[in-house]
Amino acid sequence: MIARIQELLEEVEHLQASNAEEVEALRIKYLSKKGCINALMADFRNVPADQKKEVGMKINELKDKAQQKIAALKEAAETKDSTADDLDLTRTPYPIALGTRHPLTIVKNEIVDIFSRLGFTLAEGPEVEDDWHVYSSMNFADDHPARDMQDTFFIEAHPDIVLRSHTSSVQARVMERMQPPIRVICPGRVYRNEAISARAHCFFHQVEGLYIDKNVSFTDLKQVLLLFAQEMFGKGTQIRLRPSYFPFTEPSAEMDISCNICGGKGCSFCKHTGWVEILGCGMVDPAVLEANGIDSKTYTGYAFGMGIERITNLKYQVKDLRMFSENDTRFLEEFQAAN
Ligand code: PHE
Predict the structure, then answer these.
(1) What percent of the chain stands above pLDDT 90?
(2) Whole-structure pTM value
(3) Which of 51, 84, 192, 311 would you label with 276, given CA atoms 20 to 30 Å apart?
């Protein structure tokens, strides 16, 4: 019997299997109820008493070895099986997947490009700003609701420091260090304390424009915005201005474009009005010029501001704002061609 066990020990040592089925066959042969090790155990009662100890130990050794070996073969077969299908050695390593520009960057670049052809230069500023540049210099009254906790993210230990809620703060920074003529375009990220949903987010992106010189008029503003709308949404695009209110412009207006989805005929996107709102604008309030060190008797100016997400939605009909910040490559790759 000892000889038979020894023989099996050798055999187990050299077991091989190339897949999970072969491993299972080995398990049945050695370790199952009807397997050969169990058969040895059944014979154990016929072993003479004085040999029982030695034989018993040997059988146990054999059983341990067989279990270990078969477990190792099983693991090897499983890892091999799972990679075997994925591994295609004939596949070339090219083309390497290239990243794509983010849709908001594509649209921002397009907006900046249109205005730079009209002589606007780029200006940028900090996202963490002080109250002066975001609100006070922009003619917000001390008790204006936009300063309220609901809209603005304050830095806890410094109530004077906020996450900017619009890029008008960049205009303030430009005005304080430059005298007219000023013609700048200010793109950037802004923050507002809003519940995140398909239609609102706690951060989004804006592009604001500012032009200050002698004799700048509302007609100039309207002409520039018409040109922008037609460059962005097509030559046939029409605009209309509706009176509105902003603390930093007077008069103020909101601009609609003829719905680029139905061409102005009326559809569910434009709520059957034929028009969709795209930006706010107006003549810079003289109080803002004065607060920023510019003589309001000599100079006038206009300003406008738009949300990049809004323009992107109009161009690409992205239904859910959250898509812009989820970094799902299936979404981002759709903009490959627009690069
Ligand atoms: N700052 C305004 C906003 O965030 C946009 C705007 C800019 C409106 C310039 C008019 C002129 O809503």
Answers:
(1) 54
(2) 0.72
(3) 192
